[in-house]
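User: My instructor asked us to take a sequence, write out its structure as tokens, and then describe one feature of it. I'm not sure where to start. Here is the sequence I was given:
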Amino acid sequence: MVLFALAIEPKELLPGILVDEGVVFFDASIAMDCHHPETPDVYLEMLITGPDTREHESLLVTDVKPSNLHAALLAAGFEPGSPVTYNDQHDRAAATGDRLVVEVQLDITQDWITLVDWVVHVDEKLLLVDDPGWDGFVFAGSKVVEGKGYIADREGSLISLTPWGHEVISPTWTLSPDASVDEPVWIASRDQVPQKGDSVRVRIRGEESEEDSADAED
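Assistant: Let's start with the prediction itself. The structure tokens for your sequence are:
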């Protein structure tokens, strides 16, 4: 996979991952086809996944290993928290960690846009970012299990839309992956998502606080 040219020169910390202070870059491609006339509604549970895993329900696929993404986020200065936790009664505690923004760029001449702008409600055509329950991403950090290693590597789970408990970057809401608990309603936007296989640059940075924004304006 060829890395897009950048106006800045971050360092390639690990294969396919560029790191600058407070920013991580890597390349990916569109994972599924939401433009096929017979299957236009692609329900999403992942946003970025590894190859040969869950591309059919993910916006993007990348060769970057989840454990390498974890290391790159650490090098960029972010602190991990913990993935979502849940019990048999479907009680779930939200993922924690430093808050992150995930953005994409199709070409260096184009502006960066937030990845979740490509996610819409199947019926209402509501953007995910306009849903009152959506509250962004955190660096959850997956987890290491004895005898199984870094679980996100096994699952190919870099960034999820539905928190599973093993993704590197997780949303903060506690939407259940069990369709009998929370009905799937979020799909890839046919108006926004490019064609399957198209290259995409991904940028991950820290979420600006209201205090940061006020300082920038001053």
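For the description part of your assignment, you could build on this observation: Residues 14-85+92-209 form one domain. Try explaining in your own words what that tells you about the chain.
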